[in-house]
Amino acid sequence: MVKRIKVIHFVSGMKNGGVEEVLKNYTELLNKNCPIENIIVYQHEANKARLNQMTSIGNKLVEIPYKKEHPLKNLIATYSIIKKEKPDVVHAHMNLLNFFPLSIAKLLNVKVRISHAHIANDNVNHILAPVFKKLNLLFANYNFACGEKAGKYMFGRKKFYIIYNAINQNKFKYNVAYREKLRREFNVSDNTIILGTIGRLTKQKNQVFLIKLFKKYNSIIPNSRLFIVGNGELENYLVNYAKNNGIQNKIYFINETSNPQKFYSLFDYFLLPSLYEGLPLVAVEAQASGINTILSDNIDRSVKFNSNVSFLPLNSNKWITKIRESKKNFRSQINEKNCYNIGFQYNKLFNLYINFLNK
Predict the structure, then answer these.
(1) What would the CATH number be for the domain defined by 169-325?
(2) 5 and 85 in contact (C-beta within 8 Å)?
(3) Cα separation of 239 and 248, whole Å?
(4) Smallest Cα–Cα separation from 357: which of 112, 171, 104?
C-alpha cells in the first residue's frame, strides 16, 4: 500500500487565473482518489469564491505576505510553513520566481522540489529572466511544463515532464439548452453569428485586436455580435475603445468567470488572439465543446486535439476569411482519450510524485 504523501503547492495568487484552475482540476481528483494531502500557499488578496472552491475539494490553503512588497516576510513565512508541515514534495507554480520557495525547500532538505513552467515568454525584466531561470534549475531537482514551448523556454535542454492543462471535459460539452437560454437572455436570435472569447482583460490576451476585427466583420455581416467574457485591468479601456469605434451596442462585456462553460455553447466561433501564452486553458475548454476555434500563432500548437482548430498570424483579414469559410456553430466530435482529459492525467501526476520519492 502506498503511504500518504504531503505536497505543498506555491502559487502567486488565488483568483480566477489559468494556473489556479489547473491546480483545482488536478487536486480535486487527487484528493478524492489518492493517498495525498495538498496544501496550497498563496499571496495577494484572494478571490473568496475561489478560496471556498479550493477548500471544498479538500485542499488546505495558507496565505503568506506578498513577496514584492514584503520579500523578507515572504521568505520567513515560506520557511515556517515548510518546516512545520515537513512535506514530501514542494511544487512551485510561480514560473520564473519558482526559486523563492524552492530555495527554502532545498535548505530544509525536502526530497522532491518541482519547478513548474506555465508560461513560454518572459513575464519579468528581460535582464533578470535568464538569471531567474538558472536559479530555478539550481534549486529544483525536477522540472514540469504545461507544454513543449513552455518547457524549452524555461529549462532549455534540461529534462522536463509535460503536465497537461487537463480539464473535466464533460463540463464543457456542447449544450443546446445553455445556447437557447443565453440567446434569450441577451435577446440574440439563433441566426445571429456570435464570435466569443474568454479570459482576463489584459494586454496579453489582446482583446483590442478582437474589437478591431469585429468592426470589420460586422460591416460585412451586420447580423453578428462579439462576446468578451472575463474581467481585468483593461475593462474600462476596452469598453471605451468599443464606444469610440461606434460598435458598443454589438459587443457584450460579461464580467463572469465562475461558470464560463455555458458560454462555449452560446458562441459560434471561439477566438483567442493572445500576444503570448504558455498553454491556454480556455483553448482546451473550447475544444471540449467542439466549437470552431481560431488561435493566434503565438500559442503552442500542442494545445490542439480537435480537427476544427486553426492557428493564424495576427492579421484581421485572415481571421475574417477563416471565420467566413467555417460553418456556423459546427461542433466536432472529440476523442475522449485525448491528453487534456483530467480523468486520465491526474493519476500520471500522482505516479510521478511517487516515483520521484522512491528514487
Answers:
(1) 3.40.50.2000
(2) no
(3) 7
(4) 112
pLDDT tens string 294-337: 999 999 999 999 999 999 999 999 999 999 999 888 898 888 88
In the chain, which ranges are continuous DSSP H helix?
Answer: 18-33, 48-56, 71-85, 99-107, 129-139, 148-155, 176-185, 207-220, 235-244, 261-266, 281-288, 316-325, 342-358
pLDDT digits (tens, 9 = 90+) for 110-134: 999 999 999 988 878 889 999 999 9
Q: Do residues 247 and 211 touch, judged by C-beta distance below 8 A? A: yes
- What does the CA dihedral 318, 320, 326, 331 come to, rounded to 10 degrees? 110
Mean residue pLDDT of the chain comes to: 94
Instruction: Answer positive or negative: Cα dihedral of 200, 202, 208, 210.
Output: negative
pTM value?
A: 0.90
Per-residue pLDDT reduced to its tens digit, 316-328: 999 999 999 998 8
- Name the residue among 265, 199, 191 with its Cα closest to residue 228: 199
Which class does domain 5-166+341-358 fall in?
A: alpha beta
Distances from the Cα of 191 to the Cα of 47, 135, 223, angstroms: 37, 55, 8
Question: Could you state, in order of their start, the residue ranges of all structural domains in the chain?
Answer: 5-166+341-358, 169-325
Domains 5-166+341-358 and 169-325 share a fold: yes
User: Which among 250, 245, 249 is positioned nearest to 192, based on CA atoms?
Assistant: 250
- Tell me the sheet residues that pair with 112: 89
The three three-digit cell numbers of residue 104, written as one number: 527554502
Distance of CA 9 to the CA centre of its chain: 16
Phi, psi of 22, deg, nearest 5: -60, -45
Residues 327, 269: Cα–Cα separation, whole Å: 9
Residue 12 to residue 116: CA distance in whole angstroms = 13
Q: Specify the amino acid at residue 150.
A: A
> Do the bridges between strand 309-312 and strand 269-272 make them parallel or antiparallel, or are there none, so unpaired?
unpaired
